[in-house]
Specification:
Residues 760-813 form the PapC-like C-terminal domain. Residues 1-25 form the signal peptide. Keywords: Cell outer membrane, Membrane, Signal, Transmembrane, Transmembrane beta strand, Transport. It is a multi-pass membrane protein. Pfam families: PapC_C (PF13953), PapC_N (PF13954), Usher (PF00577). It is a single chain. This protein has a 24-stranded antiparallel barrel. Strands 3, 4, 5, 6, 7, 8, 9 and 10 form an 8-stranded mixed beta sheet that branches. It is globular and about 105 Å long. It has 5 helices and 57 strands. The longest helix is centred in the first third of the chain and has 16 residues, at 2-17. It is mostly beta strands and 842 residues long.
Length: 842
């Protein structure tokens, strides 16, 4: 048996190595083949370079290695002679011409043939075309001289895909239950997320949030609940304008004016559609949780983020870079206590690339309380233009019948001295009994001092006089008749300093108001690595954070936290912490020791603590937190026990559903944004990417949080693929517009692998070199000497066809029991007539 296989392998290698080649064809000396029936050899599919039997194939098209969208039906025409190459035999549809990225000169050289249905690239000297049936791909190589400039990190708009029609529901749900020793019980449930519908290039969205709270003890029961869609809207990407068009309820986040919410229409340029560059500043949320807590970040009435965190310090860095204005943060401890604070998101100096316009235009009515409208319609917007490498000019306006405001500013790149912008805003507010006119002045500065390894991430100053009104302030005063709290001065600075083994961050914000007391916020964060011999082979980490908030009447909130983290072995560490907090006239001390660990898909922590302070009883506590990344959700659970006080349990789930014409799949939440559905031909349990996400029983999986306007790559994790599965096209890529539901099919073959001898009814074997294919026209094997064939991806009772002479000639019906342990399986190949051939051809 092994002797025959060795002879077969040598014969094929010799046949290819001692041939006489022309530009388009190869003549094989079949005399070197050690086959008894030398005339029963079919080398026709190898005689022409790149020969592919005529027919219709679903192929993925690549140009210079770049995928051009999803697989398409491509027709291969009959090649009548050896002088015809694949450039004139493969029918590439004419509607794909714009996807190739050719220069204008190159496009004019491309001609049409086959009733003007196909593209002929013969005139583009150096162009090559090959078809790989094993991977069902069509690969086109075009010399760079014929191609437009391509940024390797950016995909041109012509290749962006709008995705497929579908609907989805993304959500993040949290639950906690607390029982106090007194008998009082509290239950808290909350959820937020986005429901969406995609139709063509349009995306319909509804952001929702809901909560339920029940507290009862003795004869007293309190119960509250709420549900609301914080906004309902639709949007689409305008590729030619590099902008987003939005209709409905939305938030206008401005770099010039205060952000506000409206119902109407807006058009905003989106830098993500441009080649890669800095695209903005995103705020981060830093705080301390005393217990397993729920952190909620809101902008106006909209919930931007809600997540659970274990006890200790937390840092949230996942907010969108487009968020502007004041963010309200609520930290809800498991005992029901809530801490609230606000941060002002910083704006970096307003600079625009030379010759580029950026803009935000809006028209609609202002909103409050979710969906209530107020005032006359407003037309507004802002624009920036890059005058040169050094200077940028920007400004904007907001207008309605009773309110007008205009802003004008200039940005300057100071090169070695950083970047600076200055602007002035004038407002005119016509109220019922008076007209107010005021101005606001602003200065922003940023600089990275590489020599001293220091970043002034942001430094700014703003002053507004007494009669200055923002649009939201004017609308509130007009609606309620009461004067809102108006800002006077605001100073902000964010400073980072880097040493070899030490990092230091400082932030300071000081705000004054015309009708209120000033407010000051300080923050300090420092960290360093220290060596503790005998405890760990890695350096321990020592960190310190301190914050202070000063409000009216001398009220101060202070917090100081010191952490020492000692790693023991991969993924495991012990943390010692000391913290001090003071709110009003009451202070609190906390001593804690925790053990934590993480694996590829999960993490956990266990903490033991002791608390004491003024106006409170001393108490000890034990808490635990566990989270796991599942294929279809991210889940976490937590529990706490405080003797003589309370015990609490909680959990969260982050998940979603996406439904398309291809099926329904549960998945991790994509937060209402872009996602990619992978189809593995109905075969489930196929691992993708890092292997955590797997296809469901229907062969579907959804990859969340796919980049918009940037190429994303998805792949089958072949190292974790079960033994009975095979794939030859394990990787795919896609570039999707914002909010799209992408779709890719990765061909997976499920079945056995075995050697077989194919025999015809006349006692002979199919010709040497004949192709064995399944119902999807995928080649599963090539017939060798004496009919010996290595077959892969076959299933019991499956029907296969054997091709030679450019068409199917006989059919194989596999038995119900495929005994792969035997050395060889004899398979009769029944001759089929033209009617049967027509039924089995794809």
């Amino acid at each position: 048996m092994m002797f025959k296989l060795s002879k077969l392998r040598q014969a094929i290698l010799w046949a290819f190595s001692i041939t006489t080649c022309t530009a388009y064809a190869t003549e094989f000396n079949t005399d070197v083949l050690d086959a008894e029936d030398i005339e029963n050899v079919d080398m026709s599919q190898f005689a022409i370079a790149g020969y592919v039997p005529p027919g219709h194939y679903f192929l993925t098209v690549f140009v210079n290695g770049q995928r051009l969208g999803m697989a398409r039906e491509i027709e291969v025409l009959e090649q009548n002679n050896h002088e015809q190459n694949l450039l004139q035999a493969v029918c590439i549809p004419t509607d794909m011409l714009d996807l190739f990225g050719l220069t204008s000169e190159a496009k004019e050289k491309v001609i049409f043939f086959h009733d003007n249905q196909c593209l002929d690239f013969t005139a583009l000297t150096g162009t090559q075309l090959t078809i790989e049936l094993s991977t069902l791909s069509l690969k086109v190589v075009i010399p760079q001289a014929w191609m437009e400039y391509r940024d390797p990190y950016w995909v041109p708009p012509a290749l962006w895909e709008e995705g497929i029609n579908g609907a989805f529901f993304d959500y993040n749900a949290n639950a906690s239950a607390t029982e106090e020793n007194s008998g009082d019980k509290r239950v808290y449930l909350s959820a937020n997320g986005t429901a969406g519908l995609n139709f063509g290039a349009w995306r319909l969205r509804g952001d929702f949030n809901t909560s339920y709270q029940k507290q009862h003890g003795g004869n007293n029961t309190q119960e509250t609940h709420q549900f609301d869609f914080s906004r309902l809207y639709a949007f689409t990407s305008l590729k030619n304008l590099a902008s987003i068009l939005t209709i409905g309820e939305n938030y206008f986040y401005s770099d010039v004016f205060e952000s506000w919410q409206y119902s109407g229409i807006s058009l905003e340029s989106d830098d993500r559609m441009l080649p890669p560059k800095l695209v903005g500043y995103a705020p981060e949320i830093v705080g301390i949780a005393n217990t397993n807590a729920t952190v909620t970040v809101r902008s106006k009435d909209r919930v931007l983020l809600e997540t659970t965190v274990p006890a200790g310090p937390f840092r949230i860095q996942t907010l969108d870079s487009g968020v502007r204005g004041v963010l309200d943060v609520t930290v809800r401890e498991e005992n029901g206590e809530e801490k609230k604070f606000s941060i002002n998101t910083a704006s970096l100096p307003y600079l625009t690339r030379p010759g580029r316009f950026t803009y935000k235009l809006v028209a609609g009515k202002t909103r409050y309380n979710g969906h209530d409208l107020t005032g006359d319609p407003v037309v507004g917007g802002e624009i920036s233009y890059g005058i040169s490498n050094e200077w940028s000019l920007y400004g904007g306006s907001q207008l309605n019948g009773d309110y007008q405001t205009a802003a004008l500013g200039i940005g300057r790149d100071l090169f070695a001295f950083g970047a600076l912008s200055v602007d002035i805003t004038q407002s005119i507010a016509h109220l019922t009994h008076e007209t107010l006119q005021g101005r606001s002045y602003r200065l922003n500065y940023a600089k990275s001092f590489d020599e001293i390894r220091t970043d002034i991430t942001f430094a700014g100053y703003r002053f507004a006089d007494r009669n200055y009104r923002t649009l939201s302030q004017f609308m509130e005063q007009e609606r309620t008749g009461y004067q809102p709290r108006t800002a006077k001065e605001n100073y902000q600075i964010y400073l980072n300093k880097y040493f070899d083994d030490f990092n230091l961050s400082l932030n300071y914000q000081y705000s004054t108001y015309w009708q209120d007391k000033p407010q000051t916020q300080y923050g300090l964060y420092a960290s360093t690595n220290i060596s503790i011999p005998g405890l760990s082979q890695q350096n321990a980490t020592l960190s310190l954070s301190a914050t202070r908030t000063e409000r009216d009447k001398g009220y101060k909130d202070d917090s100081i936290n010191l952490y020492l983290t000692v790693p023991f072995y991969s993924g495991h560490s012990v943390t010692f912490s000391e913290s001090y907090s003071r709110s009003g006239g009451s202070s609190q001390y906390n001593h804690n020791i925790g053990y934590s660990g993480y694996g590829d898909n999960d993490s956990y922590s266990v903490n033991v603590g002791y608390n004491h302070g003024q106006n409170r009883d001393s108490e000890s506590s034990v808490s635990g937190y566990y989270s796991r990344d599942l294929s279809q959700a991210n889940v976490s659970v937590n529990a706490s026990y405080v003797p003589q006080q309370y015990r609490s349990i909680g959990g969260s789930i982050n998940s979603g559903f996406t439904a398309t014409a291809h099926g329904v799949a549960m998945h991790r939440s994509a937060n209402g944004d872009t996602r990619l559905m992978i189809d593995t031909s109905g075969i489930g349990d196929v691992p993708l990417d890092n292997g955590v996400i797997k296809t469901n029983r229907f062969g579907l999986a959804v990859l969340p949080n796919i980049n918009s306007y940037r190429k994303s790559v998805a792949s089958i994790n072949t190292s974790q693929l079960p033994d009975n599965l095979d794939t030859l096209d394990s990787t795919t890529d896609v570039t999707l517009t914002k909010g799209a539901i992408g779709y890719r099919s990765l061909s997976v073959m499920k079945g056995e692998k075995l050697f077989a001898i194919l025999a015809l009814s006349n006692g002979k074997n199919p010709p040497f070199g004949a192709s064995v294919r399944n119902a999807d026209n995928r080649e599963l094997g090539i017939v060798g000497e004496d009919g010996v064939t290595w077959l892969v991806g076959i299933s019991p009772q499956e029907t296969l066809s054997v091709y030679w002479g450019g068409k199917p000639q006989c059919g194989l019906h596999l038995p119900a029991n495929l005994d792969t342990s035997s050395s060889m399986l004899l398979l009769p190949c029944s001759t089929i007539n033209d009617d049967v051939i027509a039924t089995i051809q794809p």
